[in-house]
Amino acid sequence: MYFSHQVVSELLHVFKLLMNLRSVPLLEEAYRHVLGDLELTFNTLLEHSESDFQCSLVASNPYAGAWVITGSTLVGDNEHTWVGEKNGLF
After folding, report:
1. Cα–chain-centroid distance for residue 63?
2. Which burial class, exposed, middle or buried, applies to 78 when counting CB atoms under 10 A from its CB (0-12, 13-18, 19+)?
3. Structural domain boundaries of the chain?
4. Digit-coded pLDDT (tens) for 34-51
5. Which residues of 6-37 are buried (b: 16+ CB within 10 A; e: fewer)?
6. What is the pLDDT of residues 52-75, one digit of tens each?
7. DSSP, residue by residue, the chain
8. How far apart are CA 74 and CA 69, in angstroms?
9. Has residue 22 got a pLDDT over 70?
């Protein structure tokens, strides 16, 4: 697994900028999206570790039903869990 300290540093910088928004409704929406992204990412990691635990950070995740790229497959939470070769994506 490749890990880049520069990528993590830049990602944290973006998150800090989002949390400095002055408009409260916009800040709330940005925070909901950050939490939704973290929830989706953490639950994806948990699935691959074969854990039964599921993390819930936000009541209505804006990324619910989103596709996740894992290695050479696309994973979704509906009936289309494998779409790589069929749709010519890989």
Report:
1. 7
2. exposed
3. 5-58
4. 888 888 888 888 888 888
5. eeeeeeeeeeeeeeeeeeeeeeeebebebbbb
6. 888 888 888 888 877 666 555 545
7. ----HHHHHHHHHHHHHHHT-S-HHHHHHHHHHHHHHHHHHHHHHHHHTT--------SS-TTTT--EEETTEEE-SSS----TTTTT--
8. 5
9. yes
